[in-house]
Specification:
The protein has about 100 residues and is an alpha+beta fold. It is built from 3 helices and 4 strands; from the N terminus they run βαββαβα. It has a 4-stranded antiparallel sheet with strand order 2-3-1-4. The radius of gyration is 14 Å and the shape is elongated.
Length: about 100
């Protein structure tokens, strides 16, 4: 099953646009998008294939850390992780949360 996993790291310096562009290139192979330019954090949303949410989170953190290293970003601790499965996303999109 595919999961969309958002991973964030926070630290003590402002991240530049050029650093986020490098990070975006590093997460692109995982259908990833990067964020954080102009802030004291950086993040990425990655598409991860895994059997369950816990395994998706584990894989995403490893991939995120490797991508940050490749992009020469500071090795800050992961502070937040969110995940949603493709099934949950599909149900939210087509059924909606406001249905009885």
């Amino acid at each position: 099953m595919k999961f969309s996993v958002s991973v964030f790291a926070e630290g003590d310096k402002e991240i530049s646009l050029s650093e986020i562009v490098e990070f975006a290139d590093a997460v692109a192979p995982l259908s990833g998008i990067a964020s954080g330019a102009g802030s004291m954090s950086y993040g990425a949303q990655l598409v991860i294939e895994a059997e369950n949410s816990d395994l998706a989170v584990e894989k995403a953190i490893v991939a995120f850390t490797e991508a940050a290293k490749l992009a020469k970003l500071p090795s800050w601790p992961v502070t937040k992780v969110e995940t949603i499965s493709e099934v949950e996303d599909f149900e939210d999109e087509y059924i909606g949360d406001d249905q009885p």
